[in-house]
Design goal:
twelve-stranded antiparallel β-sheet; VC0802-like; single chain; binds aspartic acid; 2 domains
Length: about 600
């Protein structure tokens, strides 16, 4: 019999009346012939209330006690939900995380799931019960209660669906996933489908309808997720391997308002520097967002990266001593910047996406401080006071408000066919471990760096439009920025056969855009590590930098995204780089993943 996991967030179980309406949804699904597991969050803002109670007593409550406290929110909801179902004349049993057998590690406050046992749930389901599982919690080896981090009930729901071979419905106060946050872009539109990768990139961009980790999970175990309204009976958005319209270059846009940028200039362009810098930041438990390193000139390069504004001070503290050791000349920072990103799985197959984005911004006289592109995402950093104008301009330029004729019609997600017992047992092992799906070497590219580019609106648009007009396909684009200077540096990669042609095009542009110098490397190697959990396992980029440093390799360019980290090295080092990375990720490579 097919199983459905239905998750109800805090607002959807905020009152007993709402709990009753959630109960009715579950009963309806059961009457339609499914076995039903409900996952519920704490009622309304109860978790916040518990957090503030703790802080009335202590500034820094111990993490173990905090988890003990916070888990009670969900315990209230599961019991009430079971009662609601019973009051409607149906059978229900509520279970805490421990009772289900959700085993986690012992990192209180952000525990990872290690395994889930399905026996008890399956037996209760077979006896005709609706099973109500407490979201967000588990138990460690020593029977301590743990929680999965704020918003963690989504992760509970998706992981239960994964082990039960079920489909997953997330009932929430929005009716689906939008092309942009409707509070920020009034013309944003609900999409019928979005892919795991798009959703992952979007979730981390702050467009978070769902907890990022739950999407990583869904992708890893191929669980289709239907995000829909708990108020209305409408179809929402299906998150699976399918995008709404894969022929479209861009399917969504997002803004992260509170970013801070740090630039290290005059960085010695030699092996080990990125490793030293980013390891120091990681040791301070700070998650770096965009990382941009451009190809250096004269033995020095610049590294820029962003962190959440609130983390600027501790980041600078962590970086300063390392910078001194490395003889870095200058550290500058700004905390009034925002990140605008566009995402689309169709982007990888299309040219002319980035220059359209740059042009839309330049038409509004918005200056771009930093650029980084990945396979399916382009991000730029702009002044915060222009961020809202910027996201609206970009949303409009890609006509995200209009449905296209190639859109995939919405239909109910297909439940994964019941997994065979051996595969299911396999899934229980190390559920949330990092999974590297691919380590790749691309030896087809050349790199171009333009130094001394005037730092004014429209330059990136003009350069990349001109390059696109010549049918030159640009892959990675990186722009870094130097404070105290009116200039930026722009680096990008093209196919090797286009190297000379690109240089010629740039030469011809000299009259239009005056830049100081063009440097290039006719043969570079791009090394990429792709996988699931790159974001929640912050060590990935560092492990990569470290293994390349140990192999004595100099990194020319870096850029990062949620699902992939790319570095560019000289072509002569491609093979040994690939070998070093394969070794470095041996332990997490080739897990049983479904993509
Ligand atoms: N109640 C928890 C929280 O608010 C978990 C959740 O809602 O997903 O963070
Ligand atoms: Mg919540």
């Amino acid at each position: 019999m097919s199983i459905i996991v239905q998750k109800f967030g805090g607002t959807s179980v905020a009152t007993t009346e709402k709990i009753l309406s959630a109960a009715k949804k579950a009963i309806k699904a059961q009457q339609e012939g499914h076995q039903v597991v409900m996952v519920v969050s704490a009622m309304g803002k109860n978790t916040d209330v518990l957090v503030s109670l703790a802080h009335e007593l202590m500034d820094r409550p111990p993490a173990r006690e905090m988890d003990m406290l916070l888990s009670t929110g969900e315990q209230v909801s599961v019991a009430l939900t079971a009662m609601a179902i019973m009051s409607l004349g149906h059978k229900a049993v509520s279970l805490t995380g421990a009772q289900i057998g959700i085993r986690t590690d012992n990192v209180f406050g952000k525990a990872r799931i290690i395994s889930i046992s399905t026996d008890r749930m399956q037996k209760l389901l077979d006896d005709g019960n609706i099973v109500i599982a407490a979201g967000f919690q588990g138990i460690d080896e020593e029977f301590n209660i743990t929680t999965l981090g704020r918003g963690g009930s989504d992760t509970t729901a998706v992981s239960l669906a994964a082990v039960l071979g079920a489909s997953c419905e997330i009932y929430t106060d929005v009716d689906g996933v939008y092309t942009a946050d409707p509070r920020v872009v009034s013309t944003a539109r609900k999409v019928t489908h979005t892919s795991y990768d798009e959703m992952l990139e979007m979730a981390s961009l702050g467009a978070g309808v769902m907890h990022s980790r739950s999407i990583e999970f869904a992708k890893k175990f191929n669980v289709p997720v239907h995000v829909r309204s708990s108020q209305e009976d409408t179809t929402g958005t299906i998150i699976s391997t399918v995008s709404e319209d894969p022929t479209r270059g861009v399917s969504g846009a997002a803004v992260t308002m509170d970013e801070a940028r740090i630039t290290l200039s005059g960085v010695p362009d030699k092996p080990g520097t990125s490793n030293a810098i980013f390891s120091a930041i990681a040791r301070a438990n700070i998650t770096v967002d965009m990382i941009v390193q451009d190809a250096g000139v004269g033995g020095i390069s610049n590294i820029s990266f962003t962190v959440p504004s609130a983390e600027l001070a501790p980041t600078l503290e962590a970086v300063q001593p390392i910078a001194e050791q490395l003889g870095i000349q200058n550290i500058t920072s700004r905390d009034n910047v925002s990140k605008i990103s566009v995402v689309g799985i169709g982007m990888a197959e299309q040219s002319g996406v980035s220059d359209r984005m740059f042009r839309a911004l330049s038409d509004k006289s918005i200056n771009i401080h930093m650029i980084t592109t990945s396979q399916i995402k382009i991000s730029v950093l702009v002044d915060r006071d222009q961020a809202l104008e910027a996201i609206n301009a970009v949303h409009q330029t890609f006509e995200l408000d209009a449905t296209s004729s190639d859109a995939v019609p919405a239909e109910s997600p297909q439940a994964t066919p019941a997994a065979d017992p051996a595969a299911a047992a396999n899934k229980l092992q190390g559920m949330e471990e990092l999974a590297i799906t691919d380590i790749a070497l691309d030896s087809t590219q050349a790199s171009i760096s333009i130094h001394g580019v005037p730092d004014t609106p429209g330059i990136a648009a003009t350069i990349f439009e001109t390059v696109a007009q010549e049918n030159i396909i640009v892959d990675m684009i990186i722009q870094s920025y130097l404070d105290d200077s009116e200039f930026a540096s722009l680096s990008f990669t093209v196919q090797r056969e286009d190297h000379q042609r690109t240089l010629d095009v740039l030469q011809d542009m000299q009259s239009e855009v005056s830049f100081q110098e063009v440097a290039s490397n006719p043969a570079v190697a791009k090394l990429s590590v792709s996988g699931i959990g790159l974001r929640s396992h912050t060590g990935v980029a560092i492990r990569m930098f470290q293994s390349l440093a140990e192999a004595g390799m100099n990194i020319e360019m870096i850029n990062t995204s949620e699902v992939r980290v790319n570095v560019v090295v000289d072509d002569s080092q491609g093979d040994s780089g690939l070998k070093a990375l394969t070794q470095a990720f041996e332990d997490v490579m080739g897990r049983q993943v479904n993509i």
